[in-house]
Amino acid sequence: MLNDPLFIIVALAVAAVAGILLYGIGGFAAGVDGKKANKVMQLRILAQLVAVVLILGYVYIRRGG
């Protein structure tokens, strides 16, 4: 799997979502401005969308589409 470039892209997308989520949770804990926190969570949702689409594409391609 580690030799598969598409798998690596999917893994990076999932890691990006996790990173954004942790950053957002840390911001809430630190009491960051609500407007900035909202933007971070909007970015997380967009990153999640991309990650889910990549995961579905990966499964579709690997199953023989």
Describe the overall structure.
With 65 residues, the chain is mainly α. It has one domain (5-62). It is 85% helix and 0% strand. The chain has helices spanning 5-30, 34-62. The longest helix is centred in the last third of the chain and has 29 residues, at 34-62. This is HIG1 domain-containing protein. Residues 1-65 form the HIG1 domain.
Backbone CA Rg: 15 Å
**Regions with little confidence, pLDDT below 50 for 5+ residues:** none
The span between the termini is 18 Å
Number of domains: 1
Which structural class do you get from the secondary structure elements?
Answer: mainly alpha
> Mean pLDDT, nearest integer?
91
Tally of individual helices: 2
- Along the chain, the helix and strand elements come as HH
Estimated share of beta-strand residues? under 5%
Shape: elongated
Query: How many extended strands?
Result: 0
What fraction, in percent, of the residue positions are helical?
A: over 70%
Largest sheet: none
Protein name: HIG1 domain-containing protein
InterPro entries: Hypoxia_induced_domain
Domain HIG1: 1-65
Keywords: Membrane, Transmembrane, Transmembrane helix
